[in-house]
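Milestone M4 deliverable, item 7.
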Amino acid sequence: MGINNKIEAMQNTLMKLTNRLKRNKYINAVSDGLIAIFPILMVGALFAIVNNLQYEPFVNFLSDTGLKEIVNLPCQLTTGMIAVYAVFSISYKLADSFGKDGLTAGFISLTSFFIITPLTMIGDSGTLALTFQWTGAGGLFVAFIMSLIMTKLYIFLIDKNITITLPAGVPPTTIKAFMGLVPMIIIIIISIAVRVIFRFTPFENVHAFVYQILQAPLSNLGNTLLVFLLLKLITNILWMFGIHGGLVMYSVAVPLWLSMDYANLAAYNAGDPLPYILGYAFGMLFFQFSGTGNTIGLNLLMLKAKSKRYRTLGKLALPAGICGVNEPIIFGTPIVLNPMLAIPFILNPLISGTLAYLLTIIGILPRLNGIFMFGIPFGISGFLAGGWRVAAFQLLILIPLSIISSLKKWMQLLTRRNNYETESINRLPK
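Output delivered:
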C-alpha cells in the first residue's frame, strides 16, 4: 500500500469517527445547549468587567451611589446560575433531537434539578433559599447528568405511551401539556427518592457527591498542561487530515473547560483569587488566538507573497484571522494534507500555549478571568480576559512567534507555489 493510500485509509477512519460524534445526540445536546446559553454568559461577563474596572473615580461613584450591588446583579444571575440555564437548554436540545417536546422536557429536568439541590437556611428566621453554590459552576456537572438522564427517561415514557390520552378535537397545546403530566410525576418522584437516599450518605446531597467524585478530579486533571497539550496536539493533527479537530476533541473537553472558566469568572466578580490557570478561554486566547494553528504569521507573509493568488487570499483572510477564524487559510492555502506546513501548524500553538502557561506560573501574566467572546479581535479579547499584559503578550510576542517559528517552511511554500503558477502560465498556448 502506497503512502497516499495509507493517508486516505487513515482519513476515512477518522471521518467515520467524526461522523459518529456528529450523530451522537447526547454529545450534541450538551454542546448545542451550552452554545445556546452563551449570550447569557456574555452579558454577565460584560457586567463583571464593568464592576471590576480599576478606575478609582468610577469605583467611588459606584460605591457612593449604591450602584455597585445593582451592576453586580446581572453577573450573579447569569454566571451564578449557569447550571440552571444549562439544565433547561441541554434538555430542550436533547428532547428536540428525538422529536419530543423540548419545553416539557426542559421544565421536567429543571424541576428535578431544583428538587435535588439543597436549600440553605438564612439566619435564624427559618427561611430556606437556594444559594449560588450549586446553581453556578459548582453544579454544572450535575446539570449535565440530570438533563441527560431525566430527558432520556421522559423520552422513554413517551415512547412507551405512559401518558394521558385525550380525545380527538382537543387543542394540540393542551394535548402536549397533558402528555407530559404522567412522565413528570414519575420523574419528580424519582428525583425526591434520589434526594432522600443521598441524605443518608456522607455526601448528604447529589451535588456534593458529583463535585467531589467527578467534577473536582476532572477539573484538576484538565488544569494540567500535559493534558491540554495532548488534546491540542490531537486536534491539530486531525485538522491536517481535513477533519474538524475541535468537533472531535472539544465535544468532550469543552464542558469541563467551561466549568473552569465559570468558576474563574465567579471568583473574579466576587473579588476572590482565581482558582484555575487553564480553561476554554486560555486555549482560545493563547493556543489558537488567531485560529487553529495560529496562522496569523502565514497570513501576514501572504500579503508580501510573489504569488498573486496568495496575496489575494491573504488580504481576504486577514480580517477573519484577526478575529480567530482561519478556515480560509486552512483550506485555501491549503494547509490540509500539506506535509510542508504540518510542523509549523502543529507546533506553533503548543509553543505559544506553553510559553503563556509558564509566564502565568511565574506571575508575569495574570490568570484569566474566564471571559472570552467569539469574534473579538485578539488584543482586545486578551485585554478583556486578563488586562493589558495579556493583550501585549498576544500582539508583541505571539504574532512574531507565529512568523519566526515557521518562516522558512512558509516562505518555501509561497515561493514554490509561485513557481508552479508561473510554469502553468507558460504552458498555456500563445
